[in-house]
Amino acid sequence: MSAAPDVLLRCEGLTRRWGGLVAVDKVSLAFPRGQVHAVIGTNGAGKSTLVNLLSGDIAPSAGRVELLGQDVTAWAQSRRARAGLGRSYQRNTLFPAFSVLENCRLAAQARHPRPWALWEPASRCHTSLDAARQACARAGLDAVLERPAGLLSHGQKRQLEIAMCLATAPQVLLLDEPLAGMGAEETERMLALLAELRQGHAMLLVEHDMDAVFRVADWITVMVNGAVIASAAPADVRRDPLVQAAYLGGHGADEGVTAAGAMA
């Protein structure tokens, strides 16, 4: 399987079974640089399992994953991360007692380990610190670098999750519900950040906020029972009769974005 130069992540026939349950069923998708690709569907549609397969958190039952032109199907999550794949989770995975900067520095250190530098504390590694500061600045957190992560607002914690991804210098970002639990103001800040990160990255976005999805996504894939029923530009997905039948109860296209809240 040969990827086009701008396709940074690709899967073909990706499948995951648990006994008789098929959680992800022969999914084939491509994620090019410069595109926000949203994956939507009801709870249990297979979205998070798909992300786990792409990130290497779980192994596929069948199919293939390619990252930056390499077959990484058998690679562990840590190896994929070092190769350029960043991932955030539905729940915050922060060290609440550590500062914003220290959380980011630890993420950067995973990308730039220095096991031979026995004479130098890891906390003084300039490479990791510089990467952490740059990631925090890009995520809009440079004013709270010394604040303990546990004292951040919910929105800032989600920003910190993304900053920790950026500290590892990824080319692909897998973002699992980054807007979950956010108010209107926090959502606007996150959408602005996602739009800014579009340049230079391939981005997979799993999200239940349909208004936000249709605002920020360049491409939308809709999943039902582990399978893809539509994968197209937002306007085409909104008009797709299969999507309307599955999620919108037959409502017309003009009602699609509002009624699509039922996907949550």
Structure overview:
This protein is an alpha/beta fold. The chain has 2 domains: 1-84 and 171-185 and 196-203 and 215-224 and 237-264, Rossmann fold (3-Layer(aba) Sandwich); 93-169, no CATH class. 35% of the residues lie in helices and 24% in strands. It has 10 helices and 10 strands. It has helices at residues 47-55, 77-83, 100-111, 126-138, 154-166, 184-197, 210-216, 234-239, 241-248, 256-259; strands at 7-18, 21-32, 35-40, 62-67, 70-71, 85-88, 172-176, 202-206, 219-224, 227-232. The strands form 2 sheets. The protein has a 6-stranded mixed sheet with strand order 6-7-8-3-9-10, with helices on both faces. A 4-stranded antiparallel sheet has the order 2-1-4-5, with helices on one face. The longest helix is centred in the C-terminal third of the chain and has 14 residues, at 184-197. It is globular. It starts with 6 loop residues before the first strand and ends in a 5-residue tail after the last helix.
